[in-house]
Amino acid sequence: MDGKTTVKYLQSYIRQKDYHPELSKDYFLKLSEEVGELSRAMRKGQKAPNYQEIKGTIDEELWDVIYYAMAIANLYDIDLEQVIKSKAAISQSKYPSSVAFEENR
Known about the structure:
This protein is mainly α. The chain has helices spanning 7-17, 24-44, 58-75, 80-94.
């Protein structure tokens, strides 16, 4: 990866690979399971020593959580890039910060 992978690309990749609207509850259950696995990896401090050895680590479990969150967004035709932009604006008005969300970055 070149560090320029977009949320839009990830959503498209996941949609092409794994899109089954009839399994929405299963996607949610998988997301919940992955959050539990992330919790366990964090509690144990299991960080990958390198990107070839991620099995069972915080690194891997974070991706799994992101994957299923994006898969659920796809089921509901939610554009996460737009949601991120909208939510950043809402958060900025509720919790003002000197750090501004910048689009196209």
